[in-house]
Recover the amino acids of this structure.
């Protein structure tokens, strides 16, 4: 229990300390006009207040990742708490803040465009394809996961096909309509359900004195369970997630002032870390250790753990409300996954999104592909999602490091987690059955060589970009802010 409570406190302290430090390193310019005003189009670019932006950002990034990931990560033992706390403060929140703020400085650009500017034109095409793939996987995962939970909750009142269809219809509307019509209007209601589920389960753990394991050297993780690199891919959204790099530009286009960035981007990642801590603690404490958790996961997957934990902590009615809150999480990330994919494709081909028809012909093929992907086994989708997710985070961190290096600022805040996650993702894809299937020893050596090569390439490119005075931001001197 002490490890769990200390972790939550450290996350909150991290926001007020390291978050402030990162903000100071970046250098906020409160007088600079944001894209919400300079590119206002009434669809994707429009100003919204800090409270609304923060809530939308939290719901955008907090899909099933900070719940399902920590539940499966709980099998690795209390070391999961360590990764959630340290990863969230020093990697995930930094990743989200830099991605959001650099996007604001570049007219709300998405990651492919930022990668093209700071890592080279070739990377724009690579990241564009990679981001679309990730968003399709995310959108599909965030259709199947809530559909499964709803199917169980409704106990046969509706078929799985009908539930999937209803979620897809909502996703189509949320993807096509202006951001303030559905997302900006209904997310506060969804946010209430999210808070009920998180606070309810977390409070229940504390009040009942649940036997949450403590972090000690002898209790770090179960014997014969290697944590590298699998832990850092299993728990992604609760600590560090590349999916967030596709979501922050949505809000960078609605942010009114740069000073709001720390609360919106860094702060909401910290909030997601707290959610991850709660579900990791619930999974570790309520099911007779790893054996019981493994059995429940084998029987019904992470969704069964969510349902069982919610009912145990809050009773039948409270548990139902908590499950509804968990269902809302992936739905409110799935809709923005498809929306982000539409925006990235539109930016790539320079297609105006003012007309509904222009949005429609981009979005519909995405939904057709996603529907086809729902026929694939969820566990296989999750493995590919996890690797694609963290690989995207690696790219975003190197973009952040490049920006800060050119600006002659402390680029280590992005480069250190970037180096670590480069090693993680490369080791995984070299070793995993879905990758090259090499031995772990060979994978370690290959990943180390690849990581060193990336560092060398980074310094060569960064020094060249600095010498050529690569512009870090768009010129908005000619724009006047509209009140």
């Amino acid at each position: 229990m002490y490890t769990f409570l200390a972790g939550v406190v450290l996350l909150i302290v991290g926001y007020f300390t390291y978050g402030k430090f990162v903000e100071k390193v970046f250098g906020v310019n409160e007088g600079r006009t944001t894209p919400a005003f300079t590119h206002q189009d009434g669809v994707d670019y429009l100003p919204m207040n800090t409270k609304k932006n923060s809530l939308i950002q939290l719901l955008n990034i907090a899909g099933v990742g900070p719940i399902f990931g920590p539940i499966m990560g709980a099998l690795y033992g209390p070391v999961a708490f360590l990764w959630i706390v340290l990863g969230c403060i020093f990697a995930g929140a930094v990743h989200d803040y830099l991605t959001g703020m650099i996007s604001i400085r570049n007219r709300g650009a998405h990651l492919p465009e930022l990668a093209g500017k700071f890592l080279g034109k070739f990377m724009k095409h690579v990241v564009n394809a990679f981001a679309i793939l990730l968003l399709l996987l995310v959108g599909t995962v965030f259709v199947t996961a809530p559909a499964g939970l709803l199917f169980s909750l409704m106990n046969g009142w509706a078929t799985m096909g009908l539930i999937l269809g209803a979620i897809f219809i909502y996703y189509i509307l949320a993807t096509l309509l202006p951001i303030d019509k559905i997302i900006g209007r209904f997310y506060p209601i969804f946010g209430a359900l999210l808070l009920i589920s998180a606070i309810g389960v977390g409070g229940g753990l504390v009040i009942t004195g649940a036997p949450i394991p403590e972090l000690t050297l002898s209790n770090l993780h179960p014997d014969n369970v290697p944590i590298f690199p699998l832990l850092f891919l299993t728990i992604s959204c609760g600590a560090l997630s590349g999916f967030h790099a596709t979501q922050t530009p949505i809000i960078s286009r609605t942010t009114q002032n740069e000073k709001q960035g720390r609360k919106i981007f860094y702060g909401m990642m910290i909030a997601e870390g707290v959610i991850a801590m709660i579900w990791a603690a619930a999974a570790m404490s309520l099911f007779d250790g790893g054996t019981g958790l493994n059995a429940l996961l084998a029987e019904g997957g992470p969704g069964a753990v969510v349902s069982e934990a919610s009912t145990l902590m809050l009773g039948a009615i409270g548990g139902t409300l908590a499950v509804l809150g968990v269902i809302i999480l992936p739905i409110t990330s799935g809709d923005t996954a498809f929306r982000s994919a539409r925006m990235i494709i539109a930016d790539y081909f320079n297609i105006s999104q003012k007309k509904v028809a222009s949005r429609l012909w981009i979005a519909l093929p995405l939904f057709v592909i996603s529907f086809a992907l729902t026929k694939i086994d969820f566990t296989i989708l999750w493995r590919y999602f996890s690797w694609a997710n963290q690989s995207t985070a690696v790219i975003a961190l190197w973009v952040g490091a490049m920006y800060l290096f050119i600006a002659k600022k402390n680029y280590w805040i992005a480069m250190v987690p970037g180096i670590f996650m480069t090693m993680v993702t490369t080791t995984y894809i070299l070793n995993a059955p879905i990758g090259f299937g090499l031995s772990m020893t060979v994978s370690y050596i290959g990943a180390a060589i690849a990581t060193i090569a990336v560092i060398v390439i980074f310094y060569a490119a960064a020094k060249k970009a600095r010498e050529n005075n690569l512009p870090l931001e768009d010129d908005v001197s000619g724009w006047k802010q509209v009140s």
Summary: Confidence is low (pLDDT under 50) at residues 478-483. The chain has one domain: 2-391.
